[in-house]
């Protein structure tokens, strides 16, 4: 495999694998391992189909066209403004989730040091530290991210291998009776939203297209391989955590799900059930890195989005300060008033992902084919029929979600 292809896969992995995976075994606590795995595969197929449609539309336009310009050229100004709105909601939802997750880490550190600090102090400390890295620019984020990504994958492998001897098969089997799946539709829909968010990599497709200079063969390979690897990583992670930590009890998955300090409580539960300090330390490092890398990546993306949308120059201090104020203030306020928002925020991000990375690409593709009648060098598999089927599935998922709300 070419070095450039591997690089593209790593870029996609960096966008995909993050703090969202920490919530997967907790969000799927009611469903159990078998149903969670089935749902995960369905979400993977749905998001991958959306990514391939996005690639199709992007290849019908010149390079360096992003989602906003793609929507504008295929759906007009209405599509453009709706894309703007949903895109901003997605990034703010992710920011709120990752700030919440990062503040959990500060909480865990202060607890380990026997220092009691208010939740809002933990949140502000996390925001100040991580926003200062982002404020210095993409160079500082890149340096920090390279080191953290390497440490993340090494620690992940060590944790999964170390947890295997402690897994109890009964923990994977003794969840809600699978025949009661339909009775748990509210919970399952929320679980799906978190899973959808965990496969929200399609946002990087226009960047990859430019990186590979419209090489369709390489782009298809990167999308399929780059999305399949997170699927395997997520399944193993759910199996490890759900096999280690029982559903019920003072330190069970449902207890963690209700906690305002989700990640810190997850760290504590791993410590309790493993009884090996060195594994617990690595698990804590892994959970911390996931939250940090996700926040760094999304916040950098949001600053660029705001700068581009408001025609501001990040090189000017006056503009730069305003950009970072708009980037970090809204999600920080949300977390201050709702400190336990980690999993819920990922659920709301899942709604935006379905709208932005599944429904929008399919609608743009159908518009391109049947209204604009523009040509493209690549067409997503299945033709119009499969597009309509996935479009209906996505709309049904959203309908169930709004009904339960």
Give a written overview of the molecule.
The protein has 16 helices and no strands. The protein is mostly helical. α4 runs antiparallel to α15 (342-372), α5 (119-135) crosses α13 (277-309) and α8 (185-198) crosses α16 (383-404). It is globular and about 65 Å long.
Fold topology:
Layout lengths: L2 H14 L3 H8 L4 H28 L7 H46 L6 H17 L2 H26 L5 H5 L11 H14 L6 H7 L4 H29 L8 H6 L3 H13 L2 H33 L7 H21 L4 H31 L10 H22 L1
Helix pairs in contact: 1-10, 2-8, 2-10, 3-8, 3-10, 3-15, 4-5, 4-12, 4-13, 4-14, 4-15, 5-13, 5-14, 6-13, 8-15, 8-16, 12-13, 13-14, 15-16
Which terms summarize this structure?
single chain; 16 helices; 405 residues; mainly alpha
Short note summarizing the structure:
The chain contains 16 helices and no strands.
Number of helices: 16
Biggest sheet: strands, sense, closure? none
Structural class: mainly alpha
Mean pLDDT: 82
Name the helix and strand elements from N-terminus to C-terminus, one letter apiece: HHHHHHHHHHHHHHHH
Whole-Å distance between the termini?
47 Å
| Gross morphology | globular
Helix content: over 70%
Please mark out the parts with pLDDT under 50 across 5 or more consecutive residues, or reply none: 175-187
Beta-strand share of residues: under 5%
What is the C-alpha radius of gyration, as a whole number of Å? 21 Å
Q: Would you report the number of β strands?
A: 0
